[in-house]
Amino acid sequence: MSTSTPIVGIIMGSKSDWETMKIVCGILDDLGIAYEAKALSAHRNPTQVHVWASTAKDRGIRVVIAAAGMAAALPGVVAAVTPLPVLGVPMETGIMGGLDSLLSIAQMPGGIPVGTLAVGKVGAKNAALLAAAIIALSDDAVAAALDQFRQSQNDTVTELPIAK
Questions:
Q1: Is 0.90 surpassed by the pTM of this model?
Q2: Strands of the sheet with 63-68, listed across from one edge
Q3: Are 89 and 123 a contacting pair, CB within 8 Å?
Q4: How many helices (H) and strands (E) does the chain have?
Q5: Where are the alpha helices (DSSP H) in the chain?
Q6: Which CATH class is domain 8-155?
Q7: Each residue's pLDDT tens digit, 70-100
Q8: Are 100 and 73 in contact (CB under 8 A)?
């Protein structure tokens, strides 16, 4: 691990998001990136969200991954109170399949950026890899681990024979 101090903060709006967001934790574990994970709601725990997000940088967090469904306010609320990059993962929902979450996270007002990923598990995986890529810019150990991950991913793709 490049450091034992968490450098990625993972926040999700509900415990029900864990099934998707544990993918992020698995990838960060594989890459040797320390993280902390919390379930806090922008609507039900606004004070705790504000404290967590506004103190993230001082705690050593370098990138935040925020997951939310439905109104999906959490990534935007976090981005409003921290200067850190915030990556938003829209959760799948029973209402619109996650389109509601995607649009809520993607449509941030100018000046409060949230990098928005795909809905659900693919978005969680890509958020972990994007966070790693951001950290790899200034951490050689993470850069090497990410390079190895990508090579391993490349090696699992088999070539198909060309039909004649």
A1: yes
A2: 35-39, 8-12, 63-68, 86-90, 115-116
A3: yes
A4: 6, 5
A5: 18-31, 46-54, 74-81, 99-106, 121-136, 140-155
A6: alpha beta
A7: 889 999 999 999 999 999 999 999 989 999 9
A8: no
